[in-house]
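MODEL INPUT / OUTPUT PAIR
PAIR INDEX: 1
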Amino acid sequence: MRSIVITCIFVLAVLAAVAQKGSVKGFVYDKADGEGVPFATVKVEGTETGATADDHGFFYIPNLLEGKYTLSVSYVGYTKKTVDVEVKKGATVNLKIYIESQSVELENVEISAEKQQSRTETRVSVTSVTSLDIKRLPTVGGEPDIAQYLQVLPGVISTGDQGGQIVIRGGTPIQTKFLLDGITIYNPFHSIGLFSVYETDIIKNVDVYTGGFPSQYGGRISAVVDVTTRDGNRKKFSGKVGASPFMAHALLEIPIVKLKEDKNTSASLILNSKVSYLDQSSKALYKYAGKEGLPFSFYDFYGKLSVSTGQGSKFNVTGFNFRDLATYNAANYLWNTFGVGANFLAVPKNSNLYFNTHVSYSQYEIKLQEADGLDRRSMIGGFDIGMDFAYYIRQGELKYGLSIEGTQTQLSFVNQYAQKFAQNQNTTDLGVYVTFHKYVKKFVIEAGGRLQYFGKISSISPEPRLSMKYNVNEYVRLKLATGMYSQNFISTKSDRDVVNLFTGFITGTSEAPADATGKLYDKVRNMQRSVHGIFGIELELPKNINVNIEPYYKYFWRLLNINRFKQFNSDPNYMIETGHAYGLDLMAKWEWKGLYLYGTYSLAWVTRNDGKQTYAPHFDRRHNTNLMAVYTFGKKKDYEVSARWNFGTGFPFTKTQSFYENLDFSGGINTDYTSTNGSLGILYDNEINGGRLPAYHRLDIGFKKIFNIKEKVKIELTASVSNAYNRNNIFYFDRVRFTRVNQLPVIPSLSMSIAF
């Protein structure tokens, strides 16, 4: 009680002091299209006071003495702009600042947003990615995609080119939260594994948290991928169309109410679609695919309406529908996802507080139709309603918010023991969080916590979070992060499945789980938990050389899965495990004139313990390396060559002891086993995943040429070769057919796009 009183007195004293001074706040916009410029630097000339804009382009500079000031606004690739303001006691100056883009070399910019962020934010285990970053990567099939770029980030691996999964620092896909404009995406990757549902051309920013993520994110125990899209061109009608051997896509940006700098209201509409025809084009272009071609097809549709009013307040409505079809080993996979969401960002005129109200609903359904009749179906749908607040203070901010999530899941399947599993349930969860961020001299601290309530299992999860950074000097920074995390979602895909395109979802249950020995546990263990510990060193060396080193440890002290050992109706439906993921991630990059070099190395160990034995899941890769080089040249910088090489040691697999004939005795004692043809039975080794597959390595190269037609039309030609030296990388071994199945071979591609 005493601590609460002291805190209240301190807050009131701070508020009283602030009232004697003034402040400046506003938004930084791109003059060409009215899009907010995230992370632009706004500095008060002649002082050390300033601010970095957030991902909306919003900035706030408090505690300014009464008087006249000049603000300097800068961002890489934009012309520096100055703005004169007059601050009065107890008043807030509201600004809308428009800056113009220009061609500028990185080394000529004294202050970049990235450097400013690295000094004033903790930035532990998080990488911010833009559409320009994604387009640097040599493309697979001529189409840049976040699914391909994620794989070059430290701590991230893909288990395969065809139907592979993205695994982030030992966390399975269900343990990573994927967001699109704040809407949950339950399955963000198409069946072929090379493409996601996110469209590169409309991406504004992607924050990839590989661990230690802040308290505004809840409901997952490993990682977060948060994708934010642009609001669209508010000044002129524009768009882009393109085609490659893999797909065709079209983007339109329509200014419904055109932006005028002296007006407060504007509105824009983004419409985007892409259609894959690889199942047809591969028959003619890629002979290795055979007469049937590559059995993958999909289509995506996305739309976003954005209305801006007042001093930066805006209202967005987002909708999407993604569909997928794959035929794999005589089985048909069909999935469909759709969602809709709205958010309202309000910026009160004379306050250092702004808040964002959001509401969304998304649904994912998948069906698997197999020749043996063991069909599977899963559906998950959920709503999310909440509010997020940000209260700005000098060199810091206080964030807090709450959300209510409701989820419905349906699942039905039959396992290999002919035991049927079905579930249809609803649950409502509640989350509240608070985060205090402060930058004082050389220290940056972000402390907070989250309180998560899971209605289905009536459990509360208190989750403290802490992130810190110490700026040793201009070149060296030390950082750390830790926290507790929980989730209530379970995937039907086992950690032991090497190839399984079917991903079913269920929520926690009140049933008692068991371990592999059959030991029952109390239902309170149904809430999955983890603890993260991360330490980091950032080196910002001269000549634009940046190095980041992060050792990490994740302890998954409660993991809940479908009981894969269930043979009888009386057996528990769920089983419990524990897990560990630990290792070291290294990233280095260098940019000089037109040359960009980037490299990552990950050393990792991942284990699971089911109560019977400790084993490595199939995605445990000990060493993983990515090297990338990009060179842009020509008088107009309209040529680009790029290369990416990936090396990874082999994934684990369970060895085969022997084969036997599995006879069908459905006829009872009258079955004539001497003439009955049985199926092939497999006797597996007792040690789970005791073997290792061969190492994986692949080289991708690309070439790009840009043709500028007048000033409004740009044609881009891209030639690429994936797996350039045709490495036969193993995907898995089909034990029944006794054949080796490889990843994709060499794939040449030529694509073209027209932007207007």
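PAIR INDEX: 2
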Amino acid sequence: MKANNKNYEKLSSIIKTLPEKPGVYQFFDKNDEIIYIGKAKKLKKRVASYFKNPESLSGKIAVLVKKIFDIKFIVVNSEIDALLLENNLIKKYKPRYNILLKDDKTYPWICIKNEPFPRVFATRNIIKDGSLYFGPYASVKTMNTLLELIRQLYPIRDCKHNLSDKNIKGKKYKLCLNYHIGKCKGPCAGLETREEYDKDINEVKEILKGNFKTIKQELNRKMHEYVEKLEFEKAQIVKQKIESLIKYQSKSVIVNPMINNVDVFSIITEEKFAYVNFIKVVNGSIIQAQTIEIQKKLNESPEDILLMSIIDFRQKYNSNSKEIIIPFKLDVNIPDTKYTIPIKGDKKTLLDLSERNTRYYKLEVQKRRSLTDPELNIKNILTKMKKDLRMKELPYHIEGFDNSNIQGTNAVSSMVVFKNAKPSKKDYRHYNIKTVTGPDDYASMEEVIYRRYKRLTEEKKPLPQLIVIDGGKGQLHSALKSLEKLGLRGEISIIGIAKRLEEIYFPNDSIPLYLDKRTITLKIIQQIRDEAHRFGITHHRKKRQKSTIKTELTSIKGIGETTSITLLKKYKSVEQIKILSLEELEKCIGKSRAKIIYKYFQKKA
């Protein structure tokens, strides 16, 4: 630390004076710009941890520490206060080394305007004038459907008139078309009182909060009241409103109606990105949902990212839920709120739904990214393979081997090459087994691996980063023997894949690895294995066919390879040629050669 940071003494003195209290710390660079903001349960302990063992820090954090020129802090009352302050400061200053949660300014809200006879409308601008805002809505379609429902249920004005008592009494405004078609009751002309209008607005508020149950009960009460008074037309109008409400509610996901006012969160983390899903449930219905992608900056833990996301989402959606469903335990508690980690039941179903949405969103983002940046997509695939297969470097160049011998004849091996996770067919090779007699997979694999990499080393050509052997422990062991002879063991990563359960075997490890069947790593290994098998079988078939031509037809005196190929192309096999008539043979290869072949097979018969 002293060698790397000339400002060490200044920083040491600051750290010594830091309190053992909860708070937020800010790291500044030499230009007096904030480069990182963090929260702490105990400021002194947390900040000191950056400087105690600099050699043990990960790459990105080590770079951050080298750039710290000054430290400032803010003491707060509790850890949750520190978390809230950290979230707000990160949004304000956007430090380089902090993850940045997506800003909500692009998402629309539903506003109930603070004015006489309030309007209800969609907006993207929040004005602090006492108006009520509900949202934000990640889906504009969902928001518009909700606004349409409100307009069906309640005749709320959409004009921008200033409906003050003075203007109404002075008859400043004329009734518009909405009044005549029943979409407004004409408060501008004094035809609806504030009390009547505000009753509708209060019910709109309940709908926007997700309290459909309360509204349905109130509408049912009104409907029965009208029926008792024999006001059937009014009762029918209320009934239609109830049906509209039920129809809208049926479009949203319904869970157990006893689950009321709950927030659900799930997270998927990868090397560079994290994905967090939020679902809000009120009275058994999912009324809001959103998934975001977060770019990691300093290898933040899933716990830290999830906690920051919870605070951000709850602020964004003005959520005051008393229960939060999460996939794992968090250390920081939110006052008057409990965490639930469900194992089974309806709450587990909700968590599973959230996790499924997170996975779908991640795949969608990755597909979009792969279309816009194919090279980045390839690198992500290779990075995943490197991690799954315990490799030291990315497998840009992979070679796969398979043996083919049917009933012990014409033993061959095939080698396929994948570059950047795609087949490189011009580099494929076939090997005729030379030193092995009979069907011996292990010895054949040993021979081919030795021949391949002896040649590459002699010609000083680049070696692959990964070798894939079609087979289990036995074939892998044989391949390793050849690499050992060549002094290449440990220089190239090598694995074996057994067909039965798709087990992945590693050198010196008797316990196989079972990869998730959906992972891209297994899919590419399977593709390499299948391609090597296909390529080997094709070559083996040609070799057998050529062998058949030599032993059966070309052994006939006076019949050459060209005639044999002509006959086999037309009749497919020697067995079919044996039963041909003289006339049929003459039509195909002429009289003289037809007579020779016909006589040969007649004698053998």
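PAIR 2 NOTE: The chain has a mean pLDDT of 84.
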